[in-house]
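Example record used in the benchmark description.
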Amino acid sequence: MSQLQPGYVLNALLYSGLGLLLFLGVIRILSRMIPGGAWEQIAHQKNSAVAIAFGLLALSAAVIIAATLH
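Model output (structure tokens):
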């Protein structure tokens, strides 16, 4: 088994950070596009389509992080 090299760790951290920043940017843009705000739609009006869209965004962030760590 090879030793852990610092370059690989740095690359994983860099791409994970970039992926998370992209994820947060998309969430912010999507939140502004939804009339009344995302939390209002999900929690108070029980809009399942908005909840599913945000769930898919969370899964996409998980895939980005997993791909960078693999």
